[in-house]
Design brief:
mainly beta; two-stranded antiparallel sheet; about 0% helix
Length: about 170
């Protein structure tokens, strides 16, 4: 009698990817940044239950992912930031039959920050999922019984207080 298998390494894979980042210096309180990741990962030799998965994409990794951020900080410490994150479509199982759809998330953050000698702090309020996108905050790769997706929250507001001691 054979034992059930809970984990299996792929035999061989091909991985081609590029990560890039472009950031501006702070100019009159403004700063911008954009990042991009391209991931082309596929199985070259991988059999599961006598199914040849050669050429299938790795699950859980979108081919395209980018983030952009623009921030303004006034000399008084008041700041505002817009952050946009785009995740491309990706498979959630090794046999590439179920996909997680592409989505775009936005975040708006407003607040005030102050530094004094060895102490810094900020008070902020923000809005997550600015575009009210339906997306999955977490995907479970090769999940049992098709339970791949954990939906993310819709548009939501948050706030906080941060205090930090700066080391000498």
């Amino acid at each position: 009698m054979s034992q059930p298998r809970f984990f299996c390494n792929a035999g061989k894979s091909r991985r081609l990817g590029v990560e890039s980042r472009l950031a501006t210096p702070v100019w009159q309180g403004w700063q911008g940044e954009i990042t991009y990741t391209y991931s082309d990962f596929e199985f070259e030799r991988y059999f599961v239950d006598n199914i040849d998965l050669k050429g299938n994409e790795f699950p859980g990794l979108p081919k395209h992912r980018w983030e952009g951020r623009v921030r303004y900080t006034h000399p008084t410490g008041i700041f505002g930031q817009l952050h946009v994150h785009r995740v491309g479509e990706f498979f959630v199982n090794d046999i590439n039959t179920v996909t997680n759809h592409a989505y775009t998330l936005g975040q708006l953050l407003l607040g005030w920050e102050k530094k004094h000698r060895w102490l810094e702090g900020s008070v902020f309020i923000g809005i997550n999922n600015l575009f009210d996108e339906r997306y999955n905050a977490n995907t479970r790769i090769n999940a049992a019984f098709g339970r791949f997706f954990e939906p993310g929250p819709l548009l939501n507001v948050f706030g906080g207080l941060r205090i930090r001691m700066i080391p000498f």
